[in-house]
Write a structure and sequence with these properties.
globular; mainly alpha
């Protein structure tokens, strides 16, 4: 999928525990990964994750019996009542992310305008 297991764990925890959608996950990761990635890179990674997630979400609706020893699991459970069919392009959410990236990039350029 083009993501490391460490990244998938962060995405999964934000999505499941924090109940973050694309935009709120982007906002969290911009501050969390500010030393590692630019806002544009974070946006690309979030868009990639949610595109893949929405393409495969329907596969998670059939639950097999399992023992859960942790409070976190990437598997959905019967108490997760979110929809399981999503629009794979997330038009509104991805547009909000792009607007936020443009604002952050323009603010960064403004901060550098006064520096010689």
């Amino acid at each position: 999928m083009g993501m490391t297991y460490a990244e998938l764990s962060v995405y999964g925890r934000l999505r499941k525990i924090a109940k973050a959608g694309p935009y709120s996950m982007f906002c969290s990761l911009v501050t969390m990964w500010k030393d590692v990635c630019s806002p544009r890179q974070v946006a690309d990674r979030v868009r990639h994750f949610f595109s893949k997630y929405s393409m495969n979400r329907h596969k998670m609706t059939t639950l097999t019996p399992a023992y859960h020893a942790e409070s976190y699991s990437p598997d959905d459970n019967r108490f997760d009542l979110r929809p399981f069919l999503y629009h794979t392009s997330w038009p509104w959410q991805f547009r909000c992310i792009e607007d936020a990236v443009l604002r952050l990039e323009s603010r960064g350029r403004q901060d550098l305008d006064g520096v010689d």
